[in-house]
Amino acid sequence: xxxxxxxxxxxxxxxxxPERKLWAHWSVTVRAGATLVLGSxxxxxxxxxxxxxxxxLSESGTLTLAGVxxxxxAPAYREQVFWQDPRSSALDALSVQQWWDSLPARHSHWDxxxxxxxxxxxxxxxxxxxxxxQLSAGTRRKVLMAAALAxxxxxxxxxxxxxGLDRASVQYxxxxxxxxxxxPGRTLIVAHYEAxxxxxxxxVIELPDEA
Length: 211
Prior knowledge:
By secondary structure, the protein is of the alpha/beta class. It has one domain (33-55, 81-206): Rossmann fold, CATH 3.40.50.300. Helices cover 28% and strands 26% of the residues. The chain has helices at residues 45-53, 74-78, 96-102, 112-121, 137-150, 167-181, and strands spanning 8-17, 20-30, 33-38, 60-65, 68-69, 81-82, 155-159, 187-192, 201-206. A 5-stranded parallel β-sheet has the order 6-7-8-3-9, sandwiched between helices. A 4-stranded antiparallel β-sheet has the order 2-1-4-5. The longest helix is centred in the C-terminal third of the chain and has 15 residues, at 167-181. The two termini are 30 Å apart. The relative contact order is 0.22. Keywords: ATP-binding, Nucleotide-binding, Transport. InterPro entries: ABC_transporter-like_ATP-bd, ABC_Transporter_VariousFunc, P-loop_NTPase. This is ATP-binding cassette domain-containing protein.
């Protein structure tokens, strides 16, 4: 793959936990479009997204996003990324609308019209004034994904998008992911435990199972 066409470059990444080494001098180049990170529970999918977001720092190696290296200018790198861990409780006290209202200041390509479309597509209108801790797991995922897709971020990271979703929401999400991936200059990396058919994956990264 031509490095000049890359949006995200990972070079010689090393990271692990005391009980398991996850990556040793691992490199990958990701272009614009949608990339699937495929792996079972314990394979490191969420950890990889945290590393790509700059929330967790690698032991060594470099991450470069649209020409900005994380180790050289972390704020400029991170402001190009949308990532929200669906397992985090950091947003619990905020209402859905309060959280969404805080995001345009952090994402310069925020698309309010896209958010409105995702509210309709995911049937989120009844939940806008609820605190995130009050939402079901599926509704919470839809709230996070609506924001991710509307963010316009150069790198959008989404973890286990189908968890807890009803069939209508899965169908809407498939189309919304395809539409976002087609936007010029955007890279979506979606982590999931099984192949997601019906999506135009530009690349599939398979993580080895936990030993």
